[in-house]
Amino acid sequence: MYDLGYFRNNIGTIAARLADRGFTVDMEAFRELDSQRRAALAESEKLKAQRNAESQEIGKLKKAGGDTADMQQRVREMGELITKLDGEAAALDEKFSQLMAGIPNTPHESVPTGTSAADNVEVRRWGTPPVFSFTPKAHWDLGPELGILDFDRAAKITGARFAVYMGLGAKLERALINFMLDVHTNEHGYTEVLPPFMANKDSFYGTGQLPKFEQDLFKLEGTDYYLVPTAEVPVTNLYRNETLDLEALPIKLTAYTPCFRSEAGSYGRDVRGIIRQHQFQKVELVKFSRPESSYEELEKLTRDAEDILQRLGLAYRTVVLSTGDIGFSSAKTYDIEVWLPGLNDYKEISSCSNFEAFQARRAQIRAKSGKEKAEFVHTLNGSGLAVGRTWLAIIENYQQADGSVVVPEVLRPYLGVDVIRGCK
Asked: Which residue range is the domain that position 127 belongs to?
């Protein structure tokens, strides 16, 4: 969401930058609606001032014993017109809010210009993909063979794009959640939060999922609640409509939640295995930052997510998304992509974004120090990491010729075993 005055005064520049991300600002529609809205508000305010003046004059005339019938009739007529104008202004405000809510954030100047993911730019790599003396299997084959992953029973229980983790498979998922939270809280300085797994409409508006992306969400029938697609939604909205202490920034929070996504528009991508599920677990990192240091905080947040992969010994690369691939609310995003032998390719395991003041303005999250004027904070978040994709990356990268999977050393205290040999 933009500051209206800034948007109005810089619409040409903003439109040109948004065109780089494939979005067209209907400047004529904006100017027409803005003009109508301002005219209705101005006329209403003018009439209110006139009505107040005449009401005072009526009071004086009454005290003097004068005839006020004609003036009272004019005041009544002005009141009716004011009510009509206020109604028109309210309707225009609603249209205007819908128009503004559908305009994405402006990409930061450092974001590469492009039309798709093909224009993303790699910024670094870490680790070397493993070389096998045998043909490695994908997790959708290896997991069921080990008896730690069951798609058939999940489909029976619910449907497609769900999975049941069994035995050490379930324990590995839980171990990863605990490991990630421990590292982020004990070593990276985040405070752990356990939020609700559903949130209301205002919360989804605040982070930018609504109204534009409602088709991607699961709504609870008969309620104002949606299942969260990421902990970003409830954790960012912890401070909705609040003014924070500027001196306390950055605030760094981490949370585990299950995540629920309809995957509308995925069009058959990643249909095998657990790469793209309707339900998955994730550990999220969220920051509330001073505007002047938010890009420094983005670099730190991205490194915090990368650190989990380094400790697990998983090869990855980090790319900065182009204007054609960046998310609706983001000003700049890094994707961290882990190596998956089953795909013989890198696959996204974390997106780390700076939203600048875009979300904070929608959610009304400000900060101030002393008597200074409150200003909107900058919000950031990133996966630290997507647990299911980390799970499958371990299964695929640490598989052995005999079908077993070696447990990364840092997870052994959590899992209680060195090797996963299955539970059939």
From this structure: 117-420
